[in-house]
Amino acid sequence: QVQLVESGGGSVQAGGSLRLSCAASGVTVSLNSVAWFRQAQGKEREGVVVNLLGNDTYYNDSVKGRFTFSQDNAKNTVYLQMNSLKPEDTAMYYCAAAKNGGPLWAADSYNYWGQGTQVTVSS
User: Fold this and answer.
1) Strands 10-13 and 117-122
2) pLDDT digits (tens, 9 = 90+) for 57-77
3) Which residues, 6 or more positions from 82, have their beta carbon under 8 angstroms from its beta carbon?
4) Which of 6, 51, 78, 89 lies in the 20 to 30 Å Cα band around 28?
5) Is 108 helix (H, G, I), strand (E, B) or coil?
6) Cα 26 to the chain's mean position, in Å?
């Protein structure tokens, strides 16, 4: 059974930082593509960062230079370091894994999802 468990969300002021974690079981992050998505209230889920099979990493333009993807294969865990946070980063953040043949930034392209962790950035 595949499980993705996110943690690390919280409330911060603009300019602050948070590090999200996604602990995986039943799926090996180093052998799969992994992504972080977010969904703000009333908006569609959008891709934040995608890492393809432990190699190339792609960032949404809105987070480039502020967010950094990393992974610890020994812990089977991926991370999202978020710096210089802005109020518009407020959303539920989800970890997703095991990309199928769909488009890079489409939520339907990922087979497994975590339950999400809330990030709230106040101005």
Assistant:
1) parallel
2) 999 999 999 999 999 999 999
3) 17, 18, 19, 20, 63, 66, 67, 89, 119
4) 89
5) helix
6) 18
pLDDT digits (tens, 9 = 90+) for 14-38: 999 999 999 999 999 989 999 999 9
Which residue has tokens 């809105």?
Answer: 62
> Structure tokens of 22?
């996604």
Please choose, from the candidates 41, 39, 38, 60, the residue with its C-alpha nearest in 3D space to the C-alpha of residue 51: 60
51 close to 71: Cβ distance less than 8 angstroms? yes
Q: How many CB atoms lie within 10 A of CB 117?
A: 21
R_g over Cα of the chain: 13
Residue 75 has a pLDDT of 98
Which residue in this structure is represented by tokens 């339950």?
115
* Res 101: pLDDT: 83
